[in-house]
Amino acid sequence: MSRLFLLLSMVLCLTTGAQAQERPAQELVTSLSSDLISIQSNFTGTEIVIFGQASDIQRQPNDPSSYELAIVVEGPPQDITTRRKGRFLGVWVNREAERFQHVPSFYAVASTVNIGSMANRTVLDDLGIGLNHINLAVSGVSNVALSDRDDFRRAFIRLRKQMGLYSEQEASITFLTETMFRTNIPLPANIPVGDYKVKSFLFLHGHVVAQTEQTLAVAKSGFEQVTFEMAQSYPLFYGVLAVSLAIFTGWLAGVIFRKD
Amino acid sequence: MQLYLPIAEIPVNIFVIFGMGGAVGFLSGLFGIGGGFLLTPLLIFSGIPPAVSVATVTTQVVASSSSAVVTYWRRKAIDLKLGTILLCGGVFGSLIGVVLFQVLQSIGQLDVVISLSYVTFLGAIGGLMLFESIRAIRRRKSGVAPKARRPGQHNWIHGLPLKVRFRRSKLYVSVIPVVGLGAIIGFLGTILGIGGGFMMVPALIYLLRVPTNIVIGTSLFQILFTMAAATVFHSMGTKTVDIVLAMTLMIGGVIGAQFGARMGQNLRGDQLRMLLALLVLAVGLRFAIDLLLTPDDFYSIAIRKGAGA
User: Domain tally for chain A?
Assistant: First the structure.
């Protein structure tokens, strides 16, 4: 009985092994240095390290036909209004506005080479890889002329880059061995809280041959979280608390510095 | 030392904020003002979101006025009846202010309204104060004694109905201008993040003819309660009161105010008023320049929905 079992398991092993060899797709495995970023009162930004392994790739540097990697870190979606100032009665005021819907609140992409050379435009647009390929859907109501819409898109990306919330780093994925790679994605101090997605793509000849997706949570913790929760869920109590603290501080100062 | 603000959601250097609170506290002690009109712009210019700056300064004004109110209370220099009626108007004005604040924020015109209001009110009040203080200084130099109270003189305000007697202020005036004045100051205070003492004090003196020894205590009393109401309204409406930022500003502010008050005793009243007028005009001018000069960047973005909205 035990001999039969051994035989059976050997056969099973052999067949699965054969299947693995036949399979054309490459395996891509990635891992994050941490899957929770907690924001505390001393938070001034941090970075996450993404490690990974892509098996069965013969990668030659500077060979356009070889395997290339792109890793995208995307924050929870936001609706963001972009406004442009114009002169009105001699004063500069916001005139036109364009509302972008469901855009990532944070977006960082790291890649092995120039993103444009990894695949053609449609592929990149579909997957949303690269700052020029993020889907910036606009709302129906807008007073922006069609010819100006690209200006608003460019301004939006530029402002987000200035805030450190959007970034694109070419050639920032480094290979440690033939198949193992790593990259660092900096997370600035002003990152929004929420659930982030970390997507990795393995390209060959302009097509995605393997991809992974992982989640990363960014959350306030400790005092920061308690305060924020209180302000959101019990605003009346929070307001009264703020006033009481203020009156107490003022009264205390009056007592301490009393002259007589 | 960097400290992450839970509501503003940005880290700030705590010593810089503390220093700002202290410097503005010094000036407020020196001139006997709340200092909101200096603190709010300072915070905005240093990168704190305008909505958070305005709402948080209302809390800071509560702290700075409460310690002064205690002092004036002991000296019995507060007209409680007048203060309470002013305050009723103030709370009402503040409520309307929070509603308008949210509307302006949603249509993207909050910043320009804040700037324009600063230019208008600071320009007008600063100009008037400068003019008045220069006249006072000239009068003092030429040796003519300033006229005392003129109880016989009346203006159009004294002709309004619903008159009430205010014993401590030795006044007999209609409640309409009192409630109206309270409402206007409460409304502006909530939108601009200022106590409004620098507008309230001249209005009480020149429009209602409240005696000068009662004016400051009564004005502070009304500011304390109106700003306390504004803090609660902002907490419930805009949810932008940052308690950590407020505490840092308060502690700096109350300490600075003590030094300012001591230094203020060595300066003459008309000199102080002239310095204050110049300060008010300078802040107004700063806003005017921003409105008139071609901006470096024509574009701006605002989060409307989702994380961090």
Answer: 1
The ranges of chain A with pLDDT < 50 are 10-23, 260
CATH code of A89's domain? 2.60.40.2550
Q: Can you tell me the distance from the alpha carbon of B36 to that of B101, in angstroms, rounded to the nearest whole number?
A: 17
Three-state DSSP class for A32?
strand
pLDDT at B166: 79
Q: Any chain A CB within 8 A of the CB of B148?
A: no
> Which residues make Cβ contacts (< 8 Å) with residue A190, sequence separation at least 6?
A163, A164, A165, B9, B10
Mean pLDDT of B21-28: 88
Q: What's the mean per-residue pLDDT of chain B? A: 83
Interface membership of B243 toward A (CB under 8 Å):
yes
Radius of gyration of chain A (CA): 26
B295–A85 CB contact, under 8 Å:
yes
Please, which residues bridge with residue A180 across strands?
Answer: A53
pLDDT in tens, A185-244: 999 888 888 899 999 998 888 888 888 999 999 988 888 889 988 998 999 999 999 999
Domain membership of residue A116 (yes or no) is yes
Burial (CB count <10 Å: 0-12, 13-18, 19+), residue B150: exposed
Q: φ, ψ for residue B110 (rounded to 5)?
A: -65, -50
Domain ranges for chain B: 13-143+152-292
User: CA of A108 to nearest chain B CA: how many angstroms apart?
Assistant: 17
pLDDT digit string, tens, across residues B95-128? 898 889 888 888 878 888 888 888 888 888 888 8
Arithmetic mean of pLDDT, B46-60: 88
Q: Is A3 helix (H, G, I), strand (E, B) or coil?
A: helix
Q: With CB atoms and an 8 Å threshold, state whether A79 touches B305.
A: yes
Yes or no: say if B79 and B168 are a contact pair by the CB < 8 Å rule.
yes
Whether residue B226 lies within 8 A of chain A, CB to CB, comes out as: no
B230 Cα to chain A: minimum distance (Å): 9
How far is residue B231's CA from residue B193's CA, in Å, rounded to a whole number? 10
Give residue A240's pLDDT.
95
Q: Testing the interface with A: which of B71, B233, B254 to mutate, by most A Cβ within 10 A? A: B254
| Sequence-ordered strand ranges (E) for chain B | 2-4, 11-13, 163-166, 171-174, 299-306
Quick check: is A14 in a domain? no
Q: Exposed, middle or buried by CB within 10 Å (0-12, 13-18, 19+), for B113? A: middle
For residue A10, the model assigns a pLDDT of 47
* 3-state SS assignment for residue B27: helix
Asked whether residue A227 is assigned to any structural domain, the reply reads no
CA distance B51 to chain A (A): 15
Owning domain of residue A105? 23-220
